[in-house]
Amino acid sequence: MAMEPLATKGNYLHIYDFRVEPGREEEFIALFDEFDYSDGNPMHKSAAQVKDGVLCRDTTDPQRFFLIAEWSDIKEHARIRAILAEEIRPAFISLIEGRRFVPTYAEVVSSTPDHILNQPE
Description:
Blueprint: E1 12-19, H1 25-36, E2 49-57, E3 64-71, H2 74-88, E4 104-107, H3 114-117
């Protein structure tokens, strides 16, 4: 079985943990996708973004979502995030409870080493 680590040691993950207004979850997903995959998303133009983000939904609470991506520079992510929050203001944020869309940053301190990944099957 081929393995690939979720993230690389020394990089960072941003982890957003938020809830969407009840009954607006599908609308949120549609608005998020519309913005995220548009040319207007400055996150995707940054060389500091290592792996594109994934939007995840809690399996036990349909209002709870997580957004996770890998970056090489969290200061660059924070700079672009400020532009999103203060200037662009994507429509999907209006559906988040409390309108709070702020990540937790986590440093990747361990990931599967190459000698393990490259072992023959």
